[in-house]
Amino acid sequence: MNGTSEIMKKNDFIIVAILVALMFGWMKFYPALEKKYFPRPEQPAAGATSMSPEREEKPSPEVAAPAPDIGATVMSPAPEVKVVEVPETPEEWLTLANEAIELTVSSYGGAVVSAVLENYPAENREDSGPVILDFEKAPALRYAGLPAQALAGTLRSIGGDSLVYTAPLGDGKIFERILRLEGEYLLTVEDSFINETDVPWALPELRLPTGPMGNPAGTTAMRGLSTLGVDTFAPADGAHHWGRQLTKIFRNVNGTNMLTSTPEMIAPRPVDWMAVKNKFFVQILTPENAAEAFDISIRREGEGKKAVPVEVSAALQFDDELIAENETFTRATRVYIGPKDFAFLKTQGMEQTEVMEFKSTGFWKFMNPVMYPIKKALLWGLIHLAPFGSYGIAILLLTVIIRVIFWPLTHKGTESMQRMQALQPQIKELKEKYKDNPQRMQQETMALYKENKVNPMGGCLPMFVQIPVFIALFGVLRSAIELRFSKFLWIRDLSEPENLFAGMIPVVGSLNILPILMAATMMWQQKLTPSGAGDPQQQKMMAIMMPCMMLFFFYGMPSGLVLYWTTSQVLMIAQMLIKKYRTA
User: Are residues 465 and 547 in the same domain?
Assistant: First the structure.
């Protein structure tokens, strides 16, 4: 197509191309489109990480069954499983607790077997108990590589916030661990390897694991982005996110769904900290001195290429040490077990805030100077506007503020489209006059634009400048603990789709009202938007096809994100109606 029609179509086509590219960019992160946009509520992962609503009582030491030591027996792709020696003495438990967290520590290795997050309900109901991270089947911080005697120690309290675990390893060698709670969710672990002999002690390579993490109960939105993942950090490489690579790393491993990476799967590299996370909660291990390597363990469900990780853990790997006679070697590790709290993690340094994945990696890394400040500003705005009512109100206020900031651009874009619409009679004359000379017609059309100070691309600018804000809000909402179970009007959880009448609606499974309202406002806005081309086919695409496509993509998105976009559309319509009324 030539002349004016071609120029006009390019104007609107850029908007369509940007939106389509954005949406299909999101799609590549999801292994199954159906699971992403019409997911079914999940049950908590069985076994290692339980987000159970009620606290379970530990069995008495006399009848306690010893927990399998995944720390002592590294999960491997091979079907062979080593038998773990456990002490004959019954397992005992002591707790470390403050107002925010209760940690249960086992007398088998001084490991953490559960963490109760007192301030976070496990389920979205009034009588829900707190979130419980259950590591009993795969204890956190239990060393692999020590003799079996390391499991047969004694555990005692040395104050309200500290425990000591002591295990004689034989031949004058002692393993001693001090666990100290030093903040709401921060645990310091000081491990001492005491050599009381007159000969050096060759301490073997050791593996220090996290507890496994599964999806929180009811998590359905944005699967595949940051629900399950492992992050590592080294000054030379910065933060590295392994969550999107989990399926790829273990793709060619068959025979079992309990897997641990080998050096061939992940090149050994030093790490200053390592994190295991789901959508809202995270464990971070920060050794005093960098670990030499790490590994990743997963539990999969499904068969073949359809197998997906439902549980993930990781472990720091430390090289062997030679402890001189009558000397003590000490290794300290800072352990965070709690929510993805940006403000607190920022105080820990070494980019630990990157467990929220606010910075892009790979191809989109060049966007970080723009996107990272926007994401921080949006999170800050949500937190500080919430006291005005709720996080739903905060999203509405934030949308108004963003609209006010971009008002000059949207106003200028609307005026540009109106001027283009006013020029349509003259453009039509040029089209008729130079219908046999497309090149001359294009030259005369551009001259007409220049004479009337009209930019044919002006209508794209308002949409273009808002895309970074939209992407940034998407990044914030996918891991912001503040929106978890946050209610607004009929919405029970702003971090999830509305899921009204769940299981009762054919095809889609549940009713989500906001995406439907969003599509309706898009159609209304298109009718109010001045047309530059007047092509009926183009108008049909922009006024019907685009809202329908957006409805499809947004139907399974978190309601907080759809609330922002719908409110932004309503404000844009109000702005256009006011302008139309004033110029009438």
Answer: yes
Burial per residue of 418-428, b for 16 or more beta-carbon CB atoms within 10 angstroms, e otherwise: bbbeebbeebe
Q: Which CATH number belongs to the domain containing residue 295 in this structure? A: 2.70.98.90
The per-residue pLDDT of the chain, averaged, comes to 77
Q: Which residues of 40-79 are buried (b: 16+ CB within 10 A; e: fewer)?
A: eebebbebbbbbbbeeeebeeeeebebbebbbbebbbbee
Q: Phi and psi (nearest 5°) for 221?
A: -90, 150
Distance CA 415, CA 532 (A): 12
Which residues 6+ apart lie within 8 Å of 582 measured at CB?
Answer: none
The two tokens of residue 24 are: 């299909």
Q: Rounded distance, CA 184 to CA 229, Å?
A: 23
* Cα 498 from Cα 535, distance rounded (Å): 37
pLDDT digits (tens, 9 = 90+) for 186-195: 999 999 999 9
Contact in structure between 141 and 208 (CB atoms under 8 Å) = yes
> pLDDT higher for 138 or 433?
138
Location of structure tokens 């609606």: 505
Q: What is the pLDDT of residues 79-136, one digit of tens each?
A: 333 434 566 678 899 999 999 999 999 999 999 999 999 999 988 888 888 999 999 8
Assigned token pair, 225: 């982005």
Q: CA dihedral in degrees (142, 143, 146, 150; nearest 10)?
A: -20
The answer to whether residue 318 is domain-embedded is yes
- Find the helix or strand (DSSP H, E) in which 104 lies: strand 101-106
Contacts of 313 by beta carbon, 8 Å cutoff, 6+ apart: 48, 70, 138, 209, 210, 211, 212, 213, 276, 296, 297, 298
Q: Measured in whole angstroms, how far is the alpha carbon of residue 220 from the centre of its chain?
A: 12
Tell me the backbone φ, ψ of residue 553, rounded to 5 degrees.
-70, -35
| 443 backbone dihedrals φ, ψ, rounded to 5° | -65, -45
Q: Which residues contact 377 (CB under 8 A, 6 or more apart)?
A: none
CB 340, CB 275: distance < 8 Å: no
CA distance 471 to 26: 10
User: Which has the closest alpha carbon to 39: 28, 52, 48, 30?
Assistant: 30
Cα-based angle 41, 43, 49 (whole degrees, multiple of 5): 135
Does residue 346 sit in the same domain as residue 460? no
Residue 132's SS3 state is: strand
pLDDT in tens, 146-161: 998 889 889 999 877 8
Is 66 contained in some domain? no
For residue 53, tell me if it sits in a domain: no
Whether 295 and 284 have beta carbons less than 8 Å apart is answered as: no
Number of domains in the chain: 2
Would 436 be classed as within a structural domain?
yes
Q: In this structure, are 421 and 281 located in the same domain? A: no
What CA–CA distance (Å, rounded) separates 452 from 303? 64
The range of the structural domain enclosing residue 313 comes to: 93-350
Kindly state whether residues 401 and 277 are assigned to the same domain.
no
Of 328, 350, 372, which residue sits at a domain end? 350
Q: Judge if 306 and 414 occupy the same domain.
A: no
pTM of the model: 0.78
